[in-house]
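Tokens in:
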């Protein structure tokens, strides 16, 4: 017993020495690794793109007035399974067909983007779509009991805040990304242009040129870059002189200083002023991102929107999709070319 005790004690002392030695060696190794190979400081724009599809954790609801229809509508955004996509459905008519949020479903671009299927139509989807696309939500079923998505504060901020509050569920299917292979552009005869070029990042530029207090504004920002959130909180706007004509045309019936910036020739009529001095250009970019979402897939490229509106955005997306074999590579992150891998595996 005594001998065994000695042997046990010996083993115990030996094990303890080895254990302490191992800890010290690990600490030294860790110190060495940290000292000589510090990890690169991650920049905001290097934020990882999500690899897998995602949906929202639970349903969310909004009630508000439609900017153009003036009707009060209830909107509900619900989680949906993998590969479902973003699908809208009117619930005020049981026979309404579901409408996929895709450029090929657009039926009108007059001051807002409207999608439809059969007799069922839903308009002013762009701010909600910008929120969904920017947050990387791939799958959702959106129900609405009217013809228009509520305007809320005129930006995408209420959607962003609510989605962030309830959270997201990562799903099991890997996302497919559109990677722009070569430049593609579309212009009209009024000096408006939409262009995309290959880029290792998702980047945006938006330029506007209006008379009066709005003037020329130019905004340039990378996706996930600091400041991108300000794009999503920029409000829609109009000129006070246009309001009467729009109302005669049956538009802007729900517009007010609560959901839009209204300008005169010399002033901004909203008492609270602007959220940022280039809020007008930022809102135009928000609209453009909402329309870009109608590609139906996340995209990587450098986009320029020069004095463009919904009509040119949707035409651009439609033409790009039609020519996608020439201009777009479709990849899943694990099959991405080496230069794109850092987007997904930093
Ligand atoms: Zn807008």
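Residues out:
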């Amino acid at each position: 017993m005594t001998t065994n005790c000695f042997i046990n004690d010996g083993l115990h002392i030996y094990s303890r020495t080895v254990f302490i030695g191992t800890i010290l060696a690990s600490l030294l190794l860790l110190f060495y690794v940290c000292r000589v190979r510090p990890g690169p400081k991650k920049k905001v724009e290097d934020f990882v793109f999500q690899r897998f599809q995602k949906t929202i954790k639970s349903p969310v609801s909004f009630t508000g007035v439609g900017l153009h229809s003036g009707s009060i509508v209830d909107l509900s955004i619900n989680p949906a399974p993998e590969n479902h996509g973003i699908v809208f459905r009117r619930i005020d008519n049981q026979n309404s067909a579901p409408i996929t949020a895709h450029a090929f479903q657009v039926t009108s671009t007059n001051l807002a983007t409207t999608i439809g299927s059969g007799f069922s139509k839903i308009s002013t989807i762009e701010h909600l779509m910008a929120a969904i696309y920017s947050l990387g939500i791939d799958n959702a079923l959106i129900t609405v009991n009217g013809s228009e998505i509520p305007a809320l504060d005129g930006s995408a901020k209420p959607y962003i805040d609510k989605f962030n509050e309830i959270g997201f569920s990562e799903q099991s299917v890997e996302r497919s990304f559109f990677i722009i292979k070569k430049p593609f552009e579309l212009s009209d005869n009024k000096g408006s242009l939409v262009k995309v070029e290959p880029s290792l990042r998702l980047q945006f530029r938006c330029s506007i040129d209006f008379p009066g207090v709005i003037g020329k504004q130019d905004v340039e920002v990378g996706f996930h870059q600091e400041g991108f959130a300000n794009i999503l909180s920029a409000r829609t706007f109009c000129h006070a002189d246009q309001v009467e004509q729009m109302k005669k045309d049956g538009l802007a019936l729900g517009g007010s200083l609560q959901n839009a910036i209204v300008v005169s020739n010399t002033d901004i009529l909203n008492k609270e002023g602007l959220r940022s001095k280039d809020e007008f250009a930022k809102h135009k970019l928000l609209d453009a991102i909402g329309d870009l979402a109608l590609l139906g897939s996340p995209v990587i490229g450098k986009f320029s929107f020069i004095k463009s509106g919904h009509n040119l955005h949707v035409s651009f997306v439609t033409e790009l999709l039609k020519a996608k074999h020439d201009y777009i590579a479709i990849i899943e992150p694990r099959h991405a070319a080496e230069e794109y891998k850092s987007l997904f595996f930093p």
